[in-house]
Design brief:
The protein is of the alpha+beta class. The chain is built from two helices and six strands. 18% of the residues are buried. The structure holds zinc ion (ZN).
């Protein structure tokens, strides 16, 4: 399942970050998941709960922020309403996806010891 490899990547990012600090405690991660990213957020959460055991993220919460897809015209920049025909009403160019197709790690929350 591809959600597991995503979680694997998130945990290694957090580990990388944690290694730069003394006595780190990872409290939480926040990811932005695009509507068209092809990620099942339910599976992502399940994968997180299984995968984080025994890692630096064992106590960390995963916050998932869904991001709706957004379409626009590559010619005039006109925004295309969700659910509308994916073509610009003004210049008839096919709409282009401007966001909502990615999974982004937005934030790692961490508590660190004294250096
Ligand atoms: Zn246009």
């Amino acid at each position: 399942m591809h959600e597991y490899s995503i979680v694997g990547a998130l945990v290694s990012r957090a580990e990388e970050e944690a290694r730069r600090h003394a006595d780190p405690r990872v409290l939480g991660l926040r990811v932005r998941v695009g509507e068209l990213a092809g990620v099942d957020t339910g599976l992502l959460r399940t994968a997180w709960d299984l995968f984080r055991e025994g890692t630096c993220c064992a106590e960390a919460e995963l916050e998932i922020a869904p991001e709706p897809a957004c379409w626009g015209c590559p010619g005039c920049g006109e925004a295309i309403a969700p659910g509308a025909v994916l073509r610009c009403p003004r210049c008839a160019l096919p709409a282009r996806l401007c966001r909502g197709d990615a999974l982004v790690l937005e934030r790692i929350e961490m508590e660190v010891g004294d250096v």
